[in-house]
Amino acid sequence: MQNESIMDKNRQYWNEHADLWFGTTALPEYGVRFVTEDDLHFFKDVAGKKVLEICCGSGHSLKYLADRNAGELWGVDISQKQLDNAQAYLAENGYHAKLTCSPMEADIDIPTDYFDYVYSIYGIGWTTDLQGTFQKIASYLKKDGVFIFSWHHTLHYCVTLPCEEHRDLIEDGQLVMTKSYFDESYFKMPVHDSEIILCNRKISTYVNALARAGFVIEQMVEENDRKTMTDPEDTSDMARKAKMRPISVCFKARKL
Predict the structure, then answer these.
(1) CB under 8 Å to 211, separation ≥6 — which residues?
(2) Which residues make beta-bridge pairs with 115?
(3) Of the residues 24, 78, 142, 158, which has the maximum number of CB atoms within 10 A of its CB?
(4) In 3-state terms, what secondary structure has residue 136?
(5) Can you point out the beta strands (E) in 78-185?
(6) Pure H helices in 41-165
């Protein structure tokens, strides 16, 4: 499947369903049942800093940084509906951001060597060109600028609870491999009344792409939140899986 077809399909999904995701998975959250910015402090002091969000969605993460006195707010998203929501939400809260509707893979009219922070909260995995995207992000950042991103952990799509017919494994609290960790091919996934197209990249794929783009990784986190890991009353499937494998992963890298 060609990259343009993948982007068109995913753009269509977000234009049609943006309202359903309004305000979800945004700072201080990095992911579902995952440690938050309150735990990690990846952004440090953003007062006066120039920040760019890749896949900015409804603007809630931009508002989070604006509340902490970020100097300039910029955002990119493939969905115009998402940007319309973000513009309205930020304006309601007294903020303005420079928003651009574009795939992150494209050549975008964004200044280079300009930003203190570029970040993406559960957005970077939508790219159809990981290496090219990381190189573009590196070009936007100042020297020593910081790139922060989170996404589904690779194991999220590879390991799950056994099906009902394997009751012995369920009762033993075991997980089963349902997909090869090494399979990075694209797959279609039904969501709501539509579908999206993703690929499941290995952790080493992210690490090596960051290195080739001129980043040094300062921290990688694959830690679920404490409540999920310790609450004996939460017996949901998600909690049971989360107690045995990471759901999300987050990287903080610095441009050399």
Answers:
(1) 217
(2) 141
(3) 78
(4) helix
(5) 98-101, 115-121, 141-152, 159-160, 176-177
(6) 60-66, 80-92, 130-140
Contact 87, 97 (CB under 8 A): yes
Q: What is the dihedral of CA 135, 114, 64, 91, to 10 degrees?
A: -110
Six-digit token pair at 246?
């990471």
What does the alpha-carbon distance between residue 156 and residue 206 come to, in Å, rounded to a whole number?
15
Q: What is the pTM of this model?
A: 0.93
Q: Measuring CA to CA, how many Å separate 79 from each of 32, 45, 95, 246?
A: 22, 30, 20, 29
β-sheet bridge partners, residue 189: 196
Low-confidence ranges of the chain (pLDDT < 50): 166, 169-170
pLDDT tens-digit readout, 133-153 = 999 999 999 999 999 999 999
Please give the pLDDT value at position 171.
52
Say how far apart CA 153 and CA 135 lie, in whole Å: 22
Instruction: Give the pLDDT confidence score for residue 164 in this predicted structure.
Output: 53
